[in-house]
Amino acid sequence: MSAQIFLGLFTVNDDLAQSLQKILSNNHYDLRVFNSSDALWESVWDQTEQIDCLILHQCEGLEEMLTRLKQDGKLLPAVILTSANENQALVYHPAQKYLFLESLSDTSSAIDDAIRDFLQLTPDRKPQAEIEHINEFLTIKQHRLTEKLQERLGYKGVYYKRKPEDFFNNLSSEEKQELLTELTEEYRLILLEYFSNATEVNSRIDQFVTRAFFANLSVSHIMEIHMNLIEQFSQHLKLEGRSDEILLDYRLTLIDIVAHLCEMYRRSLPTKVTR
Q: KaiA C-terminal domain location, by residue (predicted)?
């Protein structure tokens, strides 16, 4: 797999395209320019796996393009280029980033931010669309980007792009409780489906571990979530007059998740670079 980041630029402004080609002219990026929404759409549809991030100039045809992408479940990291006086109400997905045309020199940082936030995008934050494969597509795309970043920079490349202000210990009491509540619900779904739907469960585990990783959540918090849910399940089974011995099997779930999370933390540790 190539470790280059493939970018799809949509603009009808040749000067803008040339400026971005100069700004992004390094071996990390491969920029492809599309001057029509139909051309970009065909590329996204036929070669989705080869486009890592979209750079979308806010011009005629963009709103229609975003609608088509959302309706067909084609979610990609995206940076929307706009002027300060233009409407910034276009919505592709919650992880999209806006960049003012007056700040084109910050394009590389905007791309990094767009990819980082996309990797944290979960199904509950995706745009509403009645497309059954959207969760699977989202997970595949996130995996592919993570592998590229790992190949180019190692996990530490993603690690250093985490925001310390988003770390669990730096959150307010309300934010901590909100995060734990959301993670508990995600973990509950993992437990309920762990022995029934491998594809769906693997997707949920990846999303859960990614959120925990970017929040710098400790293993002890994961264990606490697990034990609280198992206790709830145990009480429910006892009320129904059933044995709770089956819950012992769900230790495998905890081992699975903790192993994934610890591996991400291990690979995120800075290593000495040999010159």
A: 163-271
What's the rounded Cα separation, in Å, for the pair 99 and 105?
Answer: 10
Compute the residue count for the chain: 275
* This prediction's pTM: 0.53
Q: Which amino acid type is present at position 219?
A: V
Separation CA 265–CA 155 (nearest Å): 9
Which run of H or of E encompasses 46?
helix 37-46
Helix (H, G, I), strand (E, B) or coil at 57: strand
Query: 3-state class of 52 per DSSP?
Result: coil
Taking the CA atoms of 68, 16, 78 and 170 in sequence, report the sign of the dihedral they define. negative
User: Measuring CA to CA, which residue among 97, 93, 88, 56 is closest to residue 75?
Assistant: 93
- Which helix H or strand E contains 182, and what residues bound it? helix 173-193
**DSSP secondary structure, 201-219, as one string:** HHHHHHHHHHHHHHTT--H
Task: Give all strands (DSSP E) within 11-168, no chain letters.
Answer: 29-34, 53-57, 78-82, 97-100
- Tell me: the pLDDT tens digits for 67-113? 888 777 777 888 999 887 666 667 788 888 989 988 898 898 888 88
What domains are defined for the chain?
5-125 (3.40.50.2300), 165-268 (1.10.1240.30)
Quick: pLDDT tens for 36-51: 878 887 877 765 457 8
CB of 131 closer than 8 Å to CB of 112: no
pLDDT in tens, 174-232: 999 999 999 999 999 999 888 887 767 887 888 898 889 889 999 999 999 999 999 99
